[in-house]
Amino acid sequence: MSFRRAGRLAAMVLPGLLWLACGQVYRPVVIPCSSGAVPGCPLEPAPTPASFHAVFGISANVPNYPGGAMQIDVSGDSIVAETPINGPDAPNGSGRNPTHAAVLPNNSRLFVASASSVQGGIDVVSSFSPAPQSTVAIGFGPVTAIPLPNQTSSIAAISETGNLVTATLSAPLNNVPVGHAIVIADVAIPGCTPPMCNPNAYDGGFVLASINGTTIQYTDPAPGLPALTAVEVSGSTATFPPQPVFLSSAQNNAMYVANYNSNSVSVINTALDVVSNSATVGEHPVSLAETPNGLKLYVANQGDNSVSSLNTTTLSSNTVTGFSGIAPVWVVARGDSQKVYVLTQGDGQLVTIDTATDTVTGSLPVGAGANFIFFDPHLNRLYVTNPVTSMVNVFSDTGGANDTPIQLAAISFASGSTQCPEGCSPTSVTALPDGSRFYVASYQITSSASPCPDPTVTASPCVIPSLTVFDANSLTLQYPSAPTLTLLTWPPFATNQYAVPPVSTCAPAASYSPSTTRFRVFTVAAVDGSHVYVSMCDAGAIADINTTDSNTNNSGGSGIPADTLITDLPAAYAGSSQTTGAPVQNPVFMLTGQ
Fold this sequence. Notes:
There is one protein chain. The chain has one helix at about 5-20, and strands spanning about 55-60, 70-75, 80-85, 100-105, 110-115, 125-130, 145, 150-160, 165-170, 180-185, 205-210, 215-220, 235-240, 245-250, 255-260, 265-270, 275-280, 285-290, 295-300, 305-310, 315-320, 330-335, 340-345, 350-355, 360-365, 370-375, 380-385, 390-395, 405-410, 425-430, 435-445, 465-470, 475, 485, 520-525, 530-535, 540-545, 565-570, 585-590. By secondary structure, it is mainly beta. Among the domains are: about 150-240, Elongation Factor Tu (Ef-tu), domain 3; about 245-405, Methylamine Dehydrogenase, Chain H (7 Propeller), CATH 2.130.10.
């Protein structure tokens, strides 16, 4: 083994040993129903006791209501904290449309990005403390809404011709591109009384059609709105919002935010919960990766097919040489900080960048439509999912020319495959920390011309979420455990149910934007490897899978075979719609404690 690889291994093993050395406390938050011992409880196995670890999830609400965050106690198979991500003191209209979440390396703070301006609200990053290790369920700490830099100008006059709105501003908005979002707020039409008319019909998030000095134009779906004078629009504003869509940090004192609409990256001082610096990057940044040594931050800019390299101390930029991919969508850093890997969705390339020189040193094809990279630091592997081609590509992160990846396997989930005979769309991967297995989350959309094969679902088409288990050493399906797991349990679903009706807002777009869902299904493993979780947007739940085989435990083990679905945890509740009364139903992202 080379000194460099030995150093990489030591750097990755040491944090895990430190984590395991920490005192862990089992927290019996919920007394589970087991073996029908409690009246009214279903016959199901008890959860497997394990050291305390946490998994976090975020969920989207119905339009114009805040999303929610939840914390899952791995050892107890239970939800131990939930909160609306706007917080009681947050500005009105914040916390809607959560897009991404990240936790500091020391697990002291959780951050959630919300592109609320998509629904005409205020973009913020919410910050709060996770529930601590305790024998009592304390819940999340208070939520702090961190405002992000934006441009705002008051409106001097506004009018509409057909559906084209023209607004005159009191001051110009600088460097605001046509085609980006604009938010109009606090325009009240005088004399307009519901339900005959909507007094706030001018308000909302819109796409900028033109800008010339202090004059802006956009299309409003509500036609026939009256012209308003300066007096009538007093207090109204036009804002160019940032739209945060991604968070990343390898440090405890800083959290980095990718702002899709303002083409920028901001850094949050985590001690003060304030933005301390911002920098302009390429158009529509959608993913970030900080090198583990904390020296550089890399940004995948989907809109102009570029990658930005920033020095973390000042956010000053470095020139990236040789990058030519189309629509970069995800970026990860290697454990030794010497390489970063960029996935391009448009032309389907896995691109390697040398961090010392910021030069592209290699590129491997993964197929147009690829959406996600998972980096496994234990095996030094990269897993790439492609829901369009129904493929999962597996790479060693080194071994090729110029220290670039080499392909180990190409696993098909297409129709007729062993993994998914009816054809599935793989969207994410996770792996156990011990390197024994990896898991692919995928979904199947049935034909609208035929009834849903699940007799409990009357909708057609329907969505079938699933999780497929692989042996990481042989790169083959894992046996004797079932290779593909159905992810719905009773309760809350019907007995033997395995499909759900589709939810339109859960369908990912061909090209990601803050107004779309990035992951229909997403999977993470607990840091101790005892459980794997799958968020299911359409089902409104998170599947909890036990990965350890406790049949061999003769001193009170629960008897749960490895890779068994334990339960489905409901998505985080964060408030109800006044029209439907529906709680949050659509989990959109998960992450695990470090």
